[in-house]
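Propose amino acids for all 376 sites.
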């Protein structure tokens, strides 16, 4: 192997802008070198440095594109930083924070900020794909629910957003402000409703309402729903119902009072299927029916039982429905009442009676007086 003296090495290194650090007698296998341009020190064999097989990092051939001054999302590249794993770029976010990112993450768009974008919501986010304040996830849920119920949708996301603005961001039935979910972890209050449930989602048959109101309305027509809310707000004057008097029955009829055994078994089985305790007897619920004079406890409407299996030559529709006053407690004395079946099955459902009354009063007040109900 060729022997390099200190003079030979210094002469060659002067051309390469590299100097030898420390002593070198020509026989040592490696020595310390320092770049005169950047000041970087490195340990290498003199033969590799002289033959340019080992260079300073600042003189190595560039294998990257200079990104200084370019902008990626909210990040502006201001400089480069070398690390053991590759080349990183120093960036300044629009919020003022500094972040060092790999070039690959910038070019592919995987990093667009210092992390502040993940806290942005709705159409402020760079990943927003909805329209206005209606997210694509919310709109897809409307379409999927309509498809599951085999209801046609003849409106676009732009149409329903224009309708939302025309309603001044308020519920059409109560006049209260409604909003869309600000993030995927929070739930909004806006719900798209059909005015006539027998027709599809088309312009002229849709409205924005509060989601609690829509759950109560369900498949009722708007006129029927509003009339029920008015009855809840102003109950009818109570007078004894005709069904308080026991009607004649066949010998094979089973039950108590006017409550047939089939209806009684249905109440018990329904409570068992839903995992709700049932601690009343058929005598208890008939006594409760007589205490209410055969009228609905919420609206005052007269209630009736199905007279199938009696000597009557006609049948009347079953309108009486056994309800729990507080839905978080079982069927027990003090927590049961008789209500109209449309009140129980359509409006109240799993709500407490106070919650149902609150929304019915707001609907009736807004539809009658034209402005939002305010509690004094």
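Proposal:
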């Amino acid at each position: 192997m060729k022997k390099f003296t200190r003079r030979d090495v210094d002469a060659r290194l002067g051309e390469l802008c590299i100097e030898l650090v420390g002593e070198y007698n020509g026989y040592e296998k490696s020595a310390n070198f320092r770049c005169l341009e950047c000041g970087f020190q490195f340990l290498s064999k003199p033969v590799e440095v002289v033959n340019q097989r080992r260079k300073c990092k600042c003189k190595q051939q560039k294998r990257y594109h200079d990104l200084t001054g370019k902008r990626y999302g909210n990040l502006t590249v201001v400089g480069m930083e070398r690390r053991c794993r590759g080349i990183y770029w120093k960036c300044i976010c629009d919020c003022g924070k500094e972040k060092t990112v790999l070039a690959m993450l910038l070019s592919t768009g995987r990093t667009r900020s210092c992390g502040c974008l993940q806290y942005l919501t709705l159409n402020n986010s760079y990943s927003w794909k909805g329209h206005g304040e209606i997210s694509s996830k919310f709109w897809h849920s409307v379409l999927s629910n309509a498809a599951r119920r085999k209801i046609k949708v003849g409106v676009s996301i732009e149409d329903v957003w224009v309708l939302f603005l025309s309603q001044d961001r308020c519920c059409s039935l109560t006049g209260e402000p409604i909003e869309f979910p600000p993030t995927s972890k929070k739930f909004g209050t806006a719900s798209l409703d059909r005015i006539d449930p027998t027709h599809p989602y088309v312009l002229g048959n849709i409205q924005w309402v509060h989601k609690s109101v829509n759950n109560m309305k369900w498949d009722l027509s708007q006129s029927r729903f509003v009339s029920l809310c008015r009855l809840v707000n102003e109950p009818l004057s109570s007078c004894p119902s005709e069904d308080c008097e026991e009607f004649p029955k066949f010998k094979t009829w089973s039950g108590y009072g006017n409550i047939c055994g089939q209806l009684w078994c249905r109440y018990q089985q329904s409570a068992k299927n839903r995992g709700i305790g049932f601690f009343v007897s058929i005598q208890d619920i008939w006594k409760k029916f007589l205490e209410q004079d055969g009228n609905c406890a919420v609206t005052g409407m007269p209630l009736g039982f199905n007279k199938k299996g009696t000597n009557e030559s006609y049948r009347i529709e079953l309108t009486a429905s056994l309800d729990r006053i507080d839905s978080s407690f079982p069927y027990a004395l003090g927590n049961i009442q008789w209500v109209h079946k449309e009140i129980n099955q359509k409006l109240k459902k799993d709500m407490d009676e106070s919650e149902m009354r609150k929304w019915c009063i707001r609907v009736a007040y807004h539809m009658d007086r034209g402005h939002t109900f305010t509690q004094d």
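DSSP finds eleven helices and 13 strands in the chain. The two ends are 102 Å apart (CA to CA).
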